[in-house]
Amino acid sequence: MVSRVIPVDPFDLVLFGATGDLARRKILPSLFHRFQIGQIDAQSRIIGTSRSQLDRAGFQDLVASAIREFGQAGETGEDDIAAFVQLLDYVPVDAKGDAGWSALKSLLRPDVVRAFYLSVGPGLFPAIASRLSSCEIATADSRVVLEKPFGHDLASAQALNSALRAHFQESQIYRIDHYLGKETVQNLMALRFANSLFEPLWNSTHVDHVQITVAEKIGVEGRGEYYDRSGAMRDMVQNHLMQLLCLTAMEPPSRFTPNAVRDEKVKVIEALEPVSLDNIARGQYRASPGGTKQDSYLDHAGNPTSTTESFVAMKVEVANWRWAGTPFYLRTGKCLRARESEIAVYFRDPPHNIFAGATGVHGNVLVIRLQPDEGITLRTTIKDPGPGGMRLTSANLDMTFADSLPEAGRPQDAYERLIMDVIRGNQTLFMRGDEVEAAWAWADPIIASWEQSGDLAPQAYDPGSSGPDDSLLLMHRDHRRWRGIGT
Ligand code: BG6
């Protein structure tokens, strides 16, 4: 097989929060895999920092065990790990104090790409950005990478943006939404804009409605404290589902460049109608007494009377020429029946049924599956095979990428792609500051209206189900049905 790997230039990547959960689970194993396949060469360096008083050897041990625990199964050979840890260095740095900054500066080389990855809470972004600048550690070409959550509401996102822009140009700032790094999310753009079949039908004349589902099987488990302050609306809808909505609904950008793509996404967010409470279902998973063995949300929330939602479903209208009259239904939740994420585009029924008496003439459904089995399916109506007259049935044209494109190998983890894009200086798959603010400006009134209504209690749903009854009613009211989860 011809190698598709294009090596990146040597770099110095400084990872703040290097001993944290995300670094160990995602960032460091992703860097390892890109090294293993030859995209990162031995001239690059990864410098871990955090408050922990580790030395280089201690950090190397920590990273080696993180790779063994969280790396891709079958791809964590000890020789490769031993070679990778040679790239590592470590300096303890006090993000809010003086300690460690000059030691960090002395480790950086003048003539390679320099990136600072802030895998820390947003409360530390301003302090770190300010030190990187005042200690002259960041150069005019350096990149700074920020993890979500990017703020808690519009005001806090604006404050973060202005704190960052005091030291960095927008072209240096990479705000991560890891959903944008998923293979199928990018395939959505390829499907829409590299094929002539779909785009002429991609509008309210032909599309009845769209369903976007991000269902998770896991609950909040050890993240209860963070999650209880966020809920599904802030944790998933304002960012991940919003990005999926934008890529589905946006106009074709004139070219595939960072600002052309992001301009179109912002226009979608700005076209969203305010969502009224009767178009939203909120839920919280609760094990029925003596029923299932699974826990309730409240067992993990750290607050026995928490009214934070672990599930949201809503009907959203994109008020523009293309989409007026075609609702987008969004749904996400924890502790549901299965881990399943997809975008389903429901086309309208054919205008006339020529098969008198034959039932089953339905509109096509195009399903773009993000996980678990990445691929694309088109539901079509065909003749039911065999004798007995003209009977109709549904069958899927199915493309599961792992089967259709086996030579592509294992799909890259979203972080692998996104970190390489930072080094290459490509911002297409990162959120621009105005985009994040527009998403908060849309989400804030929804959250505020829950608070103002005084009726904050989410509806209980069974762990392992497909969410609360209100979510089903939201669809029934419109004479539609959700696609099944895990069926
Ligand atoms: C994160 C959320 O951003 O995305 C988590 O904070 C969620 O709550 C996760 O579990 C889902 O990501 P993925 O890639 O597993 O679908």
Can you walk through the features of this model?
With 487 residues, the protein is an alpha/beta fold. The chain folds into 2 domains: 11-147, Rossmann fold (3-Layer(aba) Sandwich), CATH 3.40.50; 182-407 and 432-476, Dihydrodipicolinate Reductase, domain 2 (2-Layer Sandwich), CATH 3.30.360.10. The chain is built from 13 helices and 15 strands. The chain has helices at 21-36, 56-70, 78-84, 101-107, 125-134, 154-165, 183-193, 224-249, 258-271, 401-404, 414-424, 433-453, 469-476; strands spanning 11-16, 45-50, 88-92, 113-118, 143-146, 173-175, 207-215, 280-285, 311-316, 328-333, 340-347, 365-371, 375-383, 392-400, 459-461. The strands form 2 sheets. Strands 14-13-12-11-7-10-9-8-15 form a 9-stranded mixed sheet, with helices on both faces. It has a 6-stranded parallel sheet with strand order 3-2-1-4-5-6, sandwiched between helices. Helix 1 crosses helix 2 and helix 6 (154-165) runs antiparallel to helix 12. The longest helix is centred in the middle third of the chain and has 26 residues, at 224-249. The two termini are 36 Å apart. The mean pLDDT is 93. The site of 6-O-phosphono-beta-D-glucopyranose (BG6) has 3 residues, from loops. 6-O-phosphono-beta-D-glucopyranose is lined by residues 148, 216, 235.
